[in-house]
Amino acid sequence: MAGAAPGGLQVGDQLGHLEYVIDAAALSAYRRLVGEPARYPNLAADDCRALLSHRCGSAPLTTVWQRFHFLRPPVLGRRVQVGGWLRELRARSGWPWLRVAAFAVDEIGTEILRSEAAFIVGRPDAGPLSGGSVRLPAASDAGSLADGLVGDCFALGRLALPDDGAGLADYRRLGRSLAGVAAADDANGLAGMIAGWLEGRISGHFGDDFWWGGQLSAAYRGAVAPGDVLSGAAVVIGCDADACGVLTRRIVISVSNQSHARVATGEAVVKVPSPRLL
């Protein structure tokens, strides 16, 4: 399987469609699992991975990175419709590496979320899956956001990943109930929860300015384990104003486990005030 994509996939192939409803119960469960004030249970549905699993069945996957463009929060009770396709296929150390893109709209055609994700088909040898050259803060270095100017750091708090008990089952059940697909086995099976937690923590600082037009990416440097306790920190590396006075803040993110090993890095872009993308 190392030499070809599962199911004979080729670049440009459509991966099918998903439909689900985000209701008050789903939002409440999502917030309980990843923390207030998160508002995008789509991340629990893990659209890109669910579409790939829907097309390819039980092929083992390792999530390398995820990228999201939040266009507007889902309206509770409206049906969400998701489509996606394979954007890139290449080999990485002999393993197929797939990049999937997806978009989610509600039943009246309002776009909710655009997402991309990269997966390795299989379980490559242990070691960093991704990296970057940006110097990131340690969680202990972060203080408050202050004015949100270049160099300002802020803590993202802590996330206790569920163990193999009820918490982990609840998270998997939520994703399955939304996407309608039993996701394929994933060496980074809790990646979606980390992304959801980051969505909640960044939006805790920026609110509507992040929910309407914000962007978030997360790269996973290695697998996390059930029961790990993660902490995060962020630093503003850019703050540019346009002619209308809109500030574009660029933020880098670092996530470490209880052993102070970095398990994920990320970036966020927030426009203040953001356009309300309808």
Topology:
Blueprint: E1 14-21, H1 24-34, H2 42-45, H3 47-56, E2 61-70, E3 79-92, E4 95-106, E5 111-121, E6 153-160, H4 166-179, H5 191-206, H6 208-211, E7 215-220, E8 229-241, E9 247-256, E10 262-272
Antiparallel strand pairs: 1-3, 2-5, 2-7, 3-4, 4-5, 6-8, 7-10, 8-9, 9-10
Plain-language structure description:
A hairpin with a 5-residue loop joins β8 (229-241) and β9. The protein is 21% helix and 37% strand. It has a 10-stranded antiparallel beta sheet with strand order 1-3-4-5-2-7-10-9-8-6. α1 (24-34) crosses α5 (191-206). The chain has 278 residues and is an alpha+beta fold. It has helices at 24-34, 42-45, 47-56, 166-179, 191-206, 208-211, and strands at 14-21, 61-70, 79-92, 95-106, 111-121, 153-160, 215-220, 229-241, 247-256, 262-272. The chain has one domain: Hotdog Thioesterase (Thiol Ester Dehydrase, Chain A, Roll), CATH 3.10.129. It starts with 13 loop residues before the first strand and ends in a 6-residue tail after the last strand.
